TrEMBL record:
Enzyme Commission number: 3.2.2.-
NCBIfam families listed in its UniProt record: 3mg
Organism: Povalibacter uvarum
Biological process annotations from GO: base-excision repair
Domain of life from the UniProt record: Bacteria
CDD domains attached to this UniProt entry: AAG (cd00540)
UniProt cross-references to Gene3D superfamilies, sorted A to Z: Methylpurine-DNA glycosylase (MPG)
Species classification: Bacteria, Pseudomonadati, Pseudomonadota, Gammaproteobacteria, Steroidobacterales
Keyword set includes DNA damage: yes
Protein's UniProt name: Putative 3-methyladenine DNA glycosylase
InterPro entries: Formyl_transferase-like_C_sf, MPG, MPG_sf
GO MF entry, a single one: DNA binding
Length: 202
């Protein structure tokens, strides 16, 4: 196993800590398109079963079973009948917490848009077939970037997106993001264009 790949102990901690510390690390997918790498720039923490914004607040079901299992596994679900979204299971075995990966900055092997949870899953071919995948394995994992490519993020936090139905839980500032990245999902198209480097002529 790569020494840069996150060990299970990284995920087996307080979920807000994991959500924050994932910012700036690399999500790696090895599949039909080879090795694809993206820098994590936006996350959201979900702390069920009491957190009404978490899927696990509805109880232990076939869909959410992986969230109740050991940390360091992928939880992938479908929304709007179209978009897949990837979470990493955190905290202790039996505690249904997870962190949603909301935004990725392309590093290698990625040509499609990644500024949103559904978009990044489409770009990396992450779907429900990967739910339950061990993130310490060789298909899908998170690793620390090498020193030559590491960029320290400027981390801010806010309330989560699209969870107004969760009452008081919707007010929790459990979303973390890199303020310097144009790949954060809430960055406007105009600002994203300004932040991205100009294409070089060949």
């Amino acid at each position: 196993m790569s020494s840069r790949k996150l060990p299970r102990s990284f995920y087996a901690r307080e979920t807000l800590t994991v959500a924050r510390e994932l910012i700036g690390l690399h999500l790696v997918r090895v599949g039909v398109h080879g090795r694809q790498v993206g820098r994590i720039v936006e996350t959201e923490a979900y702390k069920g079963p009491h957190d009404l914004a978490a899927h696990s607040s509805r109880g232990r079901t076939k869909r959410t079973e992986v969230m109740f299992g050991p940390p360091g596994h992928a939880y992938v679900y479908l929304i709007y009948g179209f978009w897949n979204c990837m979470n990493v299971v955190t905290a202790a075995d039996g505690v249904p917490h997870a962190v949603l990966i909301r935004g990725l900055e392309p590093v290698a092997g990625i040509t499609d848009t990644t500024h949103g949870p559904g978009l990044l899953c489409r770009a990396l071919q992450i779907d429900r077939a990967l739910t339950g995948t061990d993130l310490t394995g060789g298909t899908l994992w998170i690793e620390r970037p090498t020193r030559d490519v590491y960029r320290k993020p400027s981390i801010a936090r806010s309330t989560r997106i699209g969870v107004d139905y969760a009452g008081e839980w919707a007010k929790k500032p459990w979303r973390f993001f890199d303020t310097k990245s144009p790949y954060v999902s809430t960055v406007s198209a105009a600002r994203r264009k300004k932040m991205l480097p100009a294409p070089t002529s060949t």
